[in-house]
Amino acid sequence: MLWEDFLKSDYHDWRGSGHSEDRLDKPGWLPQLLSIHNLPFPGAPSAEELVELKRLRTHILHIVQRSTANETASAVDLEGLNLAMSGGPMILRIARSESGYSWESTPLREGWSRIRAEVATSFSRLLVEGEPSRLRICGNPDCKVVYYDETRNRSKRFCDDKVCGNLMKVRRFRARQKSAASDDSSFHGSTEY
Ligand SMILES: [Zn+2]
Questions:
Q1: Where are the beta strands (DSSP E) in 26-110?
Q2: What's the CA-to-centroid distance between 55 and ligand 1, angstroms?
Q3: I need a labelling partner for 171 at 20 to 30 A (CA). Which of 9, 30, 38, 122 fits?
Q4: Which pLDDT belongs to residue 179?
């Protein structure tokens, strides 16, 4: 989903080095994101356009954070989505696809306002047609990646079980070993006066 990949621009090193970066500031990241989602790259965003993109990202992140706390979106954040969507009206078309039907959108305006509208629409669509209660923030506190839990029993705790899931397993194992070791030493400590 476009909104999900867009949020990955707010990168935090999942291994816990503390390194984080805003990929919206990295040339090359946005063209790649847009090409994956079959959207045209409107040229490097101006300083103002970049601020608008980051503002939209903040609104989406707020809504995700509130949703994971079982709260509905604030009026300010919804207004942020509405503002972004108003910047790029588009004509929606339904078409047949391999898996059934799909949307095709024809923008009436191009440029970054259209891109913001596409991102905001993809997220709003999830709020309306999907299940916002399935929005998650990765259970690895260093990672912070946002995802949509599509598992049947809503049990996906990490953005990627092979990556963050494994890392947390290793950390839990080490913590257990450490506490077992300190239990041992206190035991010995009490027997050898
Ligand atoms: Zn993660």
A1: 90-97, 100-107
A2: 23
A3: 9
A4: 86
Asked if residue 174 belongs to a domain, the reply is no
Q: What is the mean pLDDT of each run of 10 residues along the chain (193 residues)?
A: 97 94 96 95 96 98 97 96 87 86 82 94 94 96 95 95 93 89 61 43
* Tokens found for residue 22: 């805003």
Q: Which residues surround ligand 1, an ion (CB under 5 A)?
A: 14, 138, 140, 143, 145, 159, 164
Classify residue 55: in a domain, yes or no. yes
Residue 41 belongs to what domain range? 2-159
pLDDT of residue 186: 55
Cα 16 from Cα 170, distance rounded (Å) = 13
Separation in Å, CA 181 to CA 154, 172, 174, 184: 35, 14, 10, 5
The per-residue pLDDT for 19 is 95
Confirm whether 193 is domain-assigned: no
Say how many Å lie between the CA of residue 148 and the centre of ligand 1: 12
Asked if residue 118 is part of any domain, the answer here is yes
pTM of the model: 0.84
**What total number of domains does the chain contain?**
1
161 C-alpha vs ligand 1 centroid, how far in Å?
8
pLDDT of residue 191: 44
CA of 167 to the centre of ligand 1 (A): 9
| Domain harbouring 108, CATH code | 1.10.3300.10
